[in-house]
Amino acid sequence: MTVLTVAVVLVTGLCLLNLLLTVAVIRRLKEHTALIGGGVDGSDAFPDSMLPGGARIGTYSAETLDGTVLTRDDLHGHTLIGVFSPGCSGCAQQLPHFVELAGNTPGGRDGVLALVVGGLEEAAGEIAQLAPVARVVHEADDGPLTRALGVQAFPAIARVDADGRVLASGVEVADLENAADV
């Protein structure tokens, strides 16, 4: 009878220990989610997804999918820039908003530059959505345009002036609202 009592107490103790460890792991996961994701949609995760406002983009030479070679000197007026990557959930959320903004950008496609980073086959969906409204450049990871823009996270969205100076940047189209009147 005492062996049975000891076994029950031991099993109960192990169950309580297991419960405490599970609660601790869940609490830690919530902390990590808050640190990684920022807001509910993850929009605050990387506030500097690319060069911040006031910075000047670096020099680059990049070929669009239609064969046109672009450099920083090809920027005219205020250019809308979007950087996307296939498989990125934030990119999938922001891409329709970017396409809508790009469609309403003065200068049409010449006023919009889209960069898709990743494998060409995987990027086909993003490229198909962007091609009607933007000059599209495709690069593998860490290409010349990616480096010139200082891309650190996806998506990265910006508006730059003719001198290549970043007017506003962020991870959401809404981050450009403060540059809408410039």
UniProtKB/TrEMBL annotation:
InterPro entries: Thioredoxin-like_sf (IPR036249), Thioredoxin_domain (IPR013766). Gene3D superfamilies: Glutaredoxin. The chain crosses the membrane at residues 6-26. SUPFAM superfamilies: Thioredoxin-like (SSF52833). Residues 51-182 form the Thioredoxin domain. Keywords: Membrane, Transmembrane, Transmembrane helix. It comes from the Bacteria. This is Thioredoxin domain-containing protein. The lineage of its organism: Bacteria, Bacillati, Actinomycetota, Actinomycetes, Streptosporangiales.
